[in-house]
Amino acid sequence: MSDKDSSTAKSYLDSAIAQGQSALGSLTGSTGDKTEAAARKEQAAAEKESSHSVGKLGPLNVSPSGGVSTDDPNRSEGSWNQTVGSAKESIGSLIGSESLKKEGSQQNAEGKGQEAQGQLSDFGSGVQDRVKGTVGGIAASITGDREKEEEMRMKHDDAKTKQRSAEADIQKQAEA
């Protein structure tokens, strides 16, 4: 929300400005405008990438803007159930136990559903809390309440971290 923080919206704005500047440079033949446009375009791409990055350590997520969140418990429990289920499937195959193999397959499938439920919960609450943080920050700014404005900025950043973490995990699973 502050100028120093990475922002997807800011990256789109910078990218659009770079396109206009590049077009202007092409029309006027100015290599300076073209060079500046290319640099701005690279900066916009880096801002967008940074606004989507999240460091993850177990269920803890941290973003470059300082936002911190923890995963919905269903995410880690679902992942654990998938691991245990896969192990049961492997052991069942190894020892020739169809019932253990079937039990493992079922536990693995349930774990996938449980993890997806946690991801959707984190994504939804992240979006909702980002909106609350943004609106609350604007309201606090209008009333001049700097303490509340900072509180709402932190709420926004923490929620953005939660949302981006869920997005990253969903994307990884879609690519797998």
Multimeric organization: single chain
Largest sheet: 3 strands, antiparallel
Instruction: State mean pLDDT (0 to 100 scale).
Output: 84
Q: How would you sum up the global shape?
A: flat
Helix content: over 70%
Strand proportion: 5-15%
Span from first to last CA? 33 Å
The number of helices is 5
Number of separate strands: 3
**Global structural class:** mainly alpha
Task: Record the strand order, biggest sheet.
Answer: 1-2-3
Q: Gyration radius, to the nearest Å?
A: 23 Å
Listing every helix as H and every strand as E from the N terminus to the C terminus, the arrangement reads HHEEEHHH
Low-confidence parts lasting 5 or more residues at pLDDT below 50?
Answer: 1-5
Structure report:
There is one protein chain. By secondary structure, this protein is mainly alpha-helical. The chain is built from five helices and three strands. A three-stranded antiparallel beta sheet has the order 1-2-3, covered by helices on one side. α1 packs antiparallel against α2, α3 runs antiparallel to α4 (98-143) and α4 (98-143) packs antiparallel against α5 (146-175). The longest helix has 46 residues, at 98-143. The chain is flat.
What are the SSEs and their pairings?
Layout: H1 8-28, H2 31-51, E1 55-57, E2 60-62, E3 68-70, H3 73-95, H4 98-143, H5 146-175
Antiparallel strand pairs: 1-2, 2-3
